[in-house]
Amino acid sequence: xxILTSALSPWGESILVRISWDLFWAALVGGILFLxxxxxxxxxxxxxxxxxxxxxxxxxxxxxxxxxxxRHSFVxxxxxxxxxxxxxxxxxxxFLPVVGVRFAWVQWHWMxxxxxxxxxxxxxxxxxxxxxxxxxxxxPKDLPDAKAEILRELGADVDAPKPGKYPLGNRLYHLAVLVxxxxxxxxxxxxxxxxxTPIFERNPFWMGDAAYGLTYVVHGLTGVGFVGxxxxxxxxxxxxxxxxxxxxxxFGTISRREYLEHHDTKRWVANK
Amino acid sequence: MPASIRDVMPAFELFQPASVADTxxxxxxxxxxxxxxxxxxxxxxxxxxxxxxxxVVIDLSNVSELRGIKERDGGIEIGALTTLTTITRDxxxxxxxxxxxxxxxxxxxxxxxxxxxxxxNLAQDARCWYYxxxxxxxxxxxxxxxxxxxxxxxxxxxxxxxxxxxxxNPSDTAPTxxxxxxxxxxxxxxxxxxxxxxxxxxxxxxxxxxxTMLQPGDLLTAIRIPGTWAGKxxxxxxxxxxxxxxxxxxxxxxxxxxxxxxxxxxxMVVNGVAARPHRLEAxxxxxxxxxxxxxxxxxxxxxxxxGAEPLxxxxxxxxxxxxxVKRAIRGGAEWTS
Lengths: 272, 337
Fold this sequence. Notes:
The complex is a heterodimer.
Chain A: E1 4-8, E2 14-19, H1 22-44, H2 52-61, E3 68-70, H3 74-95, H4 106-130, H5 143-153, H6 168-192, H7 209-238, H8 243-251, E4 253-255, H9 256-262
Antiparallel strand pairs in A: 1-2, 3-4
Chain B: E1 13-15, H1 20-30, E2 34-37, H2 43-48, E3 56-59, E4 69-72, E5 75-79, H3 84-89, H4 91-96, H5 98-105, H6 110-115, H7 118-123, H8 129-132, H9 173-179, E6 183-188, E7 191-196, H10 197-200, E8 219-225, E9 233-239, E10 250-258, E11 263-271, E12 278-279, H11 281-287, H12 294-304, H13 317-330
Parallel strand pairs in B: 1-3, 2-3
Antiparallel strand pairs in B: 4-5, 5-8, 6-7, 6-8, 9-10, 10-11, 11-12
Helix pairs in contact in B: 11-12, 12-13
């Protein structure tokens, strides 16, 4: 399997051109294998759910909370779905031609990229000034939670970690999307200088062949990375034990019981 | 440098099948390792320059069933391996579709027309010299178009439908066959597939590494021309730098129905201006029911070049297309008003 594709420049130098499309297939197969292996594991491994009695006691102790707790504001949900639309458009327009579905994909791809960039800029401003900015980031304080989560998955009888607003998995995923997203967007903007768009004046020599080769490789690597991440994201969103989170991204709220069962009320203080 | 040895053929496994069935068997066995050779006129440059290095070459010259011209359903069917010279002389072609005979007769030189085939003329690759030199451009699987920069030599390149790559389709027969509403017969995975001439050619937006829809393993076997435009007014004109052995800067093919004074229906296609033959559908729609007057021709010419985006050195193609459209509308006659 090839990883990168190189070519000889007009000056006889070996330069990177892009990733090998073998990596796309690797990401696709890897994502599906992860899905199957995790699904099988979840089917046969012991699961630890907080005892119903414990949650009943918590509900009794927090009876003053409203029955529905807002988890995602309307604006945050709109951002999520706009970003999802842009991401899926980007992945499909990029890789459908690779699997043999021919269409004029470039214009749709860069337009989806502009939409994603705009959404991300909006999200940065919104998250910085209107949301609990630090609630999505990971820190060394998460290590005990991570350890407990792993031990529970392996069958050990330890207390379930109770995160703040976002479970550790969510925050790790956000970090991965952040890194890959910034890589894809920055490389994509540089690549747009090589195609005709109404946004930039085309200048294919804005950087040298070697620098552009690296840019295409970064774009390709982040692109195939998103293939695997999107498969994993959709899979977890549809898993029965996570579906309450998915519903909250649709309707904005979770139940009081879900809030108390899955979250640390001190780390995420719900609005009353 | 990629292009180094020009006189010696590289090593490859050569097959010379004698039937379509054998050819398809070889294509199935060797897949994308196989290179199909008809007349060899496009092939030998690629091979000798070491730009293309196929492991297997399938020489079709012994497949006699791919040669010949016959009547079919009021039109004709031309085997893909029929030489261009044969087409220029065939009474069926000259009698019904003189435009195709004229186009075939204006390809390159007599020697090349004796060896070159209709299928090869249709399926030939782009002539962009940056691409043919083996540079890693989009069409070669790279990430840049060397012909679309401020300092590029792009006098012969595209003014329409550029999408990263600005190479043009060099065929003379392709626009005539689109104007005649021909259909191409392709053998794909053992099955016959018939596509319209227009759909046979693809632009860089759809597939930047190919000029046609042919994929590895496909074999173009025949070209069917319906009787729709047989005997109608047909016009072909090719403009090139020298009057022999040259590709078109721009060529035009037009099939016109109507009278000396009025056009009722037309199909008009220009080539050499985009990566696929550029059908002038707006002109066709405009001309329906119009009189043949200088004013109408002028308006049609304006429509023909709407959306043209010339590169640094090929803006001359815009007035060239305009004038060819006007000449096609006028045909051989003088203006009626």
